[in-house]
């Protein structure tokens, strides 16, 4: 391994010295700006398409394979279980069994509670934890994600659906619309995956999600006060003001102290369990099984004391048996088709964002690759099948996936284990939930969602990026004070506004020479950098496109005006050269070229020469294609700012 | 002027030498990456706001002035006529008079024709050339723009309005809706200006405008075939297929040969005049007065031959007298308020785009500054007043502004001259237009709009930027084959798609050392650049935001995988360092920091060290704020790639 590298290094070393000598002798070697070999149009288009839609090169393993092998690979790509299943062994199964049982014990009480958030009967939550995990286990490629209904999506779906149909008066239609929305959520997810448009979910920024999740958590927790305090007349709105009104209006005769005692006791227990799990990572199973223990204990307690006769609300009835078919219940025509479609897209996108974020997080932790688009197809297929088997939108749950990971899951088989447990529950145990008090479910949900409020992330966001913090707070307050939809809308709008701001108002900087180097840097960052008299060096920090070309031109001219004004004050030499450092300018379009032409003309009128430094491959290509390189003169385009200055300086001296 | 600069240069020279010596002695002087002085939050916010909304620093002249002076300056800012009016003189007036008369002779026949495009009676075109130019002359700051109705906006308005109300059956309501739309177009324009949101119009890319204008020109020309061929039953749709259907269906008995003869004769005359004007710039007045001559000659011809009795359609009636008030005709309530508002916004934005583009073009040619936002306020005010005086949306006309410029206009006073001529026309001459054949108006419009088809620009766009060309053609075919609105929608969508693509899929490049320099550049652009063995140098060519952070991270890891694979094939040394050149990375947000953290962790697992080169002021600030600089180690952040390589290389040797 030794010598080829040494030789290479030696060569570099020589280059180094020859440069130094050259400079010392004041005959700097000026390297020409490279024009990349002309690409043909089709190839260029192909490369762009590839980077946009196949950035992760998913077909890499298919290359140079016989057709039969390609077919096998293709089927394996759709059903990764065929790949990892072949090397599955008992050790892996042990991990998956333990983690599957753990997440099952966590998901059963959560499911019953979350289905309430979606205004559906409790069994629908359990249904959604039976079929979708099986489909995902076959098609998904994340090893750690735990599939099922989640709090935020349940709330969002419930809010959007009850805007259209009353969930109590028209329960059947409401359910049908829920299945329709789930169907289209799945279709939307799968479509994004198939057409490799997965990057669209990146447009919801991390900061906006932190704010949205925090707001949703508070909204969900507030909704639980209904069950927690035993209030009968509760508002249907989700904003904090309506909810607090409901609570205080019913304070005198609407609260039920027995309910509060049960709820508060078990909430304390759950939070304590959470705290123990947090303090000692090995005891992660304590908070994981605490909810199930609470349910068993409280149900037993209500059963023997008959607390339900004292106003403690109980679950009463959960349908026994596994998922019935719901194929014929989906609206494929009429006005509800459109409404279901719209709601499905919103819920599907949020579900996707959550699942992909979870998948990526754990993939990074265990260092395996995750194809976001393939994940989307799996999630979409799972929801489409789910919508036909009485499930509502399922996705990856943050809390359960973390438990899954800590319990040592090895593959997606832990989802199969969980699914089996849910199957057994549905088949045999549901009648036992009859006496489970609603207050316990409320306590379980509250203790689950407080994890979604991520103070540390919010503080970090504030420290790092103020604009992100505005997005975060906007989403948070939008959800808490208005509604989930408005919060989401604010989050998306601010995210987009940020992108637009970025492309409309790129930064520019004045460069100066850092003493004892030939390096030119932003004088704001390096106050010790010296300006070169008679020369203004401006760096444009972005591609120059139609959205910013005018601004860039005018900003450069303003730098010049400012500089000349200051120059006059300081009795300095007049600016004779404007060097534009183009390193960060990755691309220009026709508007950009026009802006440069206008800049050139304006400078000519002022008697200032335009000099360009280090245009990139695409830019130099376009400068030539448009004839701009000829206009300003090929000899005014340099490889580095230092070369450009070396060109300007002698001329300045002559004139001075 | 001599010595301060010389001293400065001498200092630089010394720096130069000390650097060279340092390198030759192999003890390179490594400069630290600067951390800019911490700014306070408020100041930072203020700077961002200023760059976004007051990028042109419009309040510069107000600084440090007494209050009374500020008031005067403020009034002058709103009414620039008070400023330039004080230095107005006879020489300037001579230029303005000649150019004003020239554009008046051009605008009168055009106005009558354009009002037909908007489905309004001929006098409304003339009204719109009387009041708005006066308001603009007082408030506008462009010296060359010629105000009045224009073809594209007339067509757009006509199409959008007739979707709502039938212009023949309900002429009065149609007119009212037109005034309502004009009112809101003005409000929209003025609002954008007042809130300094003028940059929003930059989101319609140059390429999209070229395509849209070309398509609109063809659509308008096709519409003129009705008058040109004397067809009675003509489609109301504007797409090329419907129009050609109409034409060929009526070929047998619907065409009128007398009309065709008149039209064809004068169209030939007009095109000839245009050609003469193009060949000899001094004869610019030939095409400028040709339309009026055609009108006079053809009217006289029809009058003496009574061709109208042989089926030649004539104007018949133009209301005499100046603009009546239309304040009470604007819909301020009901469903038409919303419709008028929507149409007004679309028409207003297109009108604005055209006017600002014209203003900027001529301002660059005469080298004066134009405040886009102030222009918008002027244009908005002019349309609001216009809507109350029976005008429809007016804006700057490309063709008339060019004539105005060539005729030697000096100030906006040429618009006043034109306005006076239109006033006299309205008061005294309109009855004379009775016998003007419609075919002449059609010929005048055809000869005017063919200028909007800019083949050269389209070819240049094709040469420079293929994606821009797609946008251009999309808008063009959308307008020609579907409708103006769809074309516009396509233009805007493609423009946005381009921005989103830009921020989602930034470029990355592998750098190599250019022989005989210490400069590291893209190896695709400089094939002679050498890679440094054991080190992978990647440059990220964009700010790292939530929209691209995942892509950037994964792309870098893919470069590494590719490189390692290739490295293995070549028996080269294993990659031990990943240098990320951050010069073009102007900003990171929280998602970006997360991506870097994930990158760092993935690299650690692979046994590759992460090294950063030249992070900018904002980035280094955030790297510190987030603790990432500590995570990777302060000593892994360098000023230049060369410094970073100097750090990596010795370690590589040791390990080898």
From TrEMBL, chains A, B:
UniProt topology in membrane? Multi-pass membrane protein
Transmembrane domains' residue ranges: 174-195, 207-225, 255-276, 283-304, 341-363, 375-395, 415-433, 440-462, 474-497
Q: Major location, coarse class?
A: membrane
**Domain STAS spans what residues?**
525-648
List, alphabetically, the GO terms of the cellular component aspect.
membrane
A Pfam family cross-referenced in the UniProt record is Sulfate_transp
**Any one GO molecular function term:** secondary active sulfate transmembrane transporter activity
The similarity annotation says: Belongs to the SLC26A/SulP transporter (TC 2.A.53) family.
Which protein is depicted?
Sulfate transporter 1.1
Give the species: Quillaja saponaria (Soap bark tree)
């Amino acid at each position: 391994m030794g010598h080829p590298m040494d030789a290479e290094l030696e060569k570099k070393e020589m280059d180094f010295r020859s440069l130094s000598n050259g400079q010392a002798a004041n005959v700097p070697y000026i390297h020409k700006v490279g024009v990349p070999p002309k690409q043909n149009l089709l190839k260029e288009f192909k490369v762009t398409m590839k980077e946009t839609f196949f950035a992760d090169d998913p077909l890499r393993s298919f290359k140079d394979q016989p057709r039969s092998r390609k077919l096998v690979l293709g089927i394996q790509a759709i059903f990764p279980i065929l790949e990892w299943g072949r090397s599955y062994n008992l050790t892996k199964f042990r991990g998956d069994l333990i983690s599957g049982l753990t997440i099952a014990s966590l998901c059963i009480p959560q499911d019953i509670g979350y289905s309430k958030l979606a205004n559906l009967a409790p069994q629908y939550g359990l249904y959604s934890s039976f079929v979708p995990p099986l489909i995902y286990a076959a098609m998904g490629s994340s090893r750690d994600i735990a599939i099922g209904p989640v709090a935020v999506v349940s709330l969002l779906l419930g809010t959007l659906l009850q805007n259209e149909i009353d969930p109590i008066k028209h329960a059947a239609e409401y359910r049908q619309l829920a299945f329709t929305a789930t169907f289209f959520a799945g279709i939307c997810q799968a479509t994004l995956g198939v057409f490799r448009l997965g990057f669209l979910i990146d447009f919801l920024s991390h900061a906006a999600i932190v704010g949205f999740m925090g707001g949703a958590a508070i909204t969900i927790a507030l909704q639980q006060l209904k069950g927690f305090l035993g209030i009968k007349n509760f508002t249907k709105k989700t904003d904090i003001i309506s909810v607090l009104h409901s609570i205080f209006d019913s304070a005198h005769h609407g609260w039920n102290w027995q309910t509060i005692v049960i709820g508060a006791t078990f909430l304390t227990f759950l939070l304590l369990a959470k705290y123990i799990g947090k303090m000692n990572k090995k005891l992660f199973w304590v908070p994981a099984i605490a909810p199930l223990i609470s349910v068993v204990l409280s149900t037993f307690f209500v059963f023997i004391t008959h607390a339900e006769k004292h106003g403690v609300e109980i679950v009463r009835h959960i349908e026994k048996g596994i998922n019935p078919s719901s194929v014929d219940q989906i609206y494929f025509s009429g006005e509800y088709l459109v409404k279901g479609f719209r709601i499905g897209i919103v819920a599907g996108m949020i579900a996707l964002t959550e699942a992909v974020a979870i998948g990526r997080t754990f993939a990074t932790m265990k260092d395996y690759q995750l194809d976001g688009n393939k994940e989307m197809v799996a999630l979409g297929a799972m929801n489409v099948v789910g919508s036909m088997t009485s499930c509502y939108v399922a996705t990856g749950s943050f809390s359960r996936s973390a438990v899954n990971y800590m319990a040592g899951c090895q593959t997606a088989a832990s989802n199969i284990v969980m699914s089996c447990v849910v199957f057994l529950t549905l088949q045999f145990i549901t009648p036992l939930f009859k006496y489970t008090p609603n207050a316990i479910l409320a306590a379980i949900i509250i203790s689950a969602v407080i994890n979604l409020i991520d103070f540390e992330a919010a503080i970090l966001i504030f420290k790092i990026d103020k604009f992100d913090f505005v997005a975060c707070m906007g989403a948070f307050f939008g959800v808490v004070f208005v509604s989930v939809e408005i919060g989401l809308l604010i989050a998306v709008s601010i995210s987009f506004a940020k992108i637009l701001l970025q492309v409309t108002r790129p930064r520019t900087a004045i460069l100066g020479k850092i003493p004892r180097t030939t390096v030119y840097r932003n004088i704001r960052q390096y106050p010790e950098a010296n300006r070169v008299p008679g020369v203004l060096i401006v760096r444009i920090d972005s591609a120059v496109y139609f959205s910013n070309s005018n601004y860039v031109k005018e900003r450069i001219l303003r730098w010049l005006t400012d500089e000349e004004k200051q120059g006059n004050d300081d009795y300095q030499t007049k600016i004779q050269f404007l060097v534009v450092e183009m390193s960060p300018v990755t691309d220009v379009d026709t508007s950009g070229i026009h802006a440069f032409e206008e800049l050139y003309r304006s400078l000519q009128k002022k008697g200032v020469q335009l000099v360009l430094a280090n245009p990139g491959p695409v830019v130099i290509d376009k400068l030539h294609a448009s004839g701009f390189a000829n206009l300003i003169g090929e000899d005014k385009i340099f490889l580095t700012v230092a070369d450009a200055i070396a060109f300007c300086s002698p001329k300045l001296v002559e004139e001075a």
